[in-house]
Amino acid sequence: MKKLVLLALAAALPAMASFAQEAESPFADTVEIRHGLMLQMAADLGKLGAIAKNETPYDAATASKAAANIAAIASVISMDQFPAGSEVDAAPDSFALPAIWTNPDDFALKITGLNDAASFMVAAAGKDASSIKGVMANLGGACGSCHKAYRQPEE
Ligand code: HEC
Predict the structure, then answer these.
(1) What is the mean pLDDT of residues 109-114?
(2) Residue 71 domain-assigned?
(3) 37 burial class (0-12, 13-18, 19+ CB within 10 angstroms)?
(4) Residues near ligand 1 (Cβ within 6 A)
(5) Is residue 102 part of a domain?
(6) How many domains does one find in the chain?
(7) pLDDT of 23
(8) What is the rounded average pLDDT of the residues 125-142?
(9) Does position 16 have pLDDT exceeding 80, yes or no?
(10) What residue's CA is closest to ligand 1, atom 19?
(11) Which atom from ligand 1 is nearest to the alpha carbon of 117?
(12) What is the crossing angle of helices 104-125 and 129-150, to 10°?
C-alpha cells in the first residue's frame, strides 16, 4: 500500500514541478492577456486584409465588426499589459523587448498610432473594399512599427 502511494506521488511530481514553475511567474496571466489581445487583432486584421485583396467578397457587417474589434482592443492596450519585469527572457513566453521600459513615451505613441489607424479603418470598413484597401497599409504599419522596435522576432 505504502509503495503504491509512493509510486503515485512519483508519477505526479513532474506535473507538480511544471505547475510550480508556471505559478512562480507573477507575469504569466499578463503575458497571456496581451498575447490574446494581439492574436484577436491579428485575426481581425486578416479578415480585413482578405477583403482588401479581394480574396473574400466585401461584406459591411463582417468588415465593420473586424474594424470595431481592433479599435476596441487598441483602446484596451496600455502599460497595464506591460508591467516592468515582463520582458523576454524574464517572463515565460514573453517576446517583449526591454526597450519598452526604457522608451515608455515612444511606446505610448505607438499605442496612440494604433488607435488612430484603427479609427480610420472603422470609417473605411463601412464603405467598401477599396476604402479598406486604402487604409490597410496605415493600420498594418501601426502594428509593424511597434513590433519592429519592441517585439523580439520569433525564430
Ligand atoms: C504598441 C506596440 C504594439 C502595437 C501597436 C501592436 N503590437 Fe502586437 N505585439 C507587441 C509586443 C510588444 C508583442 C510581444 C508581446 C509578448 O510576447 O509578450 C506583440 C505581439 C504580437 C503578436 C504575437 C502574439 C503571441 O501570441 O505571441 C501578434 C500576433 C501581434 N502582436 C499582432 C498585432 C497586430 C495585428 C497589431 C496591429 C493591429 C499589433 N500587434 C499592434 C506590441 C504591439
Answers:
(1) 98
(2) yes
(3) middle
(4) 31, 34-35, 38-39, 41-42, 45, 70, 94-96, 107, 110-111, 114, 142-143, 146-147, 150-151
(5) yes
(6) 1
(7) 56
(8) 98
(9) no
(10) 151
(11) 38
(12) 170
